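re the bet — no i am not wrong, look at it urself. input seq straight from the record:
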Amino acid sequence: MSESVATAESHAAEAAAPEEPFDKADISTFRADDAEAGTNICKLLVAFFFYSLLAMAFVTWWAFGAMKANNSEAPVAEAHATH
């Protein structure tokens, strides 16, 4: 009877400690790859942010320039209409 209990305990111990799917070299490689991917993602986000910032600045400059041009032409058009 003690043999069956010992056998059951050894099977339970084997089931409780599952084998790891990756060895330590693979895990360190995964960590290095993850760190590199995180760095590249951050660089892309910074690039997209600055591109958006430049695009918004250009559109703002263009819009204010167009409004200024329309406001400066309005009195000239009114002066020609009254003559």
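see?? The CA atoms of residues 33 and 41 lie 12 Å apart. told u. also The first helix runs from residue 2 to 16. so pay up
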